[in-house]
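step 4 of 6: structure.
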Amino acid sequence: MKKNTFYLLIGCIALALLAILWYSVEIHRPLLIEAAFIAGIAVIYVARRRVEDLIEDERSVKITEKAAVRTFQVFWVVFFAFSIGAVMKILYVPEFPRSFRPGRSPAILPPRLMGYIQLGLLCLMIFLYVGFRIYYARKYGEWETDEE
Amino acid sequence: MRNKIKVYRAMHDLTQEDLARKIGVTRQTILAIEKGRYVPSLDLAFKIARHFGVNIEEIFIYGEDSPQSRPG
């Protein structure tokens, strides 16, 4: 498979996923987009192995590695901080002195809010990765030009 | 780490694209190595030296600061 064909395939899969997402929202079936997303990524991974042109070498692998490690280093701190807060809300620790407020239960976050927070964390991870990737790509001369 | 890849390329009348294809890397990698932005692995350094038929020390000169040796 040629490099351009591969990129075209990625574009087609992205468009198909967008359409499936739309349909999945309309019929209220999240499993459809979840399964489609996993299948789409699997197809991309398989297609990537069949690309004959060179799209990756040790420098690009290094850029990817560095960006991934830095993303993980920042993300786990944010995720840990959020998780501590969530656990504090879930764990119902009695106060001292005891305040007798009837009907008080652990304040568990509503599912909709949890969904938004998850989406926010996912976006954060993507932005961090893209940002670090741009930084390391520039550091290792990705967009250098030469007079050759 | 300094290197003389550009000199050896000129001696062998090779473009960056030609060398990259023969070594099995992208043209950007050759360019980044030439400009000192990226220090190649030992494996790649040997491949480059072997391609030009010289010892590795004749192309790569160790001793200067490189982007990879700096933290961050």
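step 5 of 6: annotate
 - Chain A touches chain B at residues 54, 57-60, 62, 139-142, 144, 146, 148 (CB under 8 Å).
 - The helical segments of chain A are 3-26, 30-49, 58-90, 111-139.
step 6 of 6: archive
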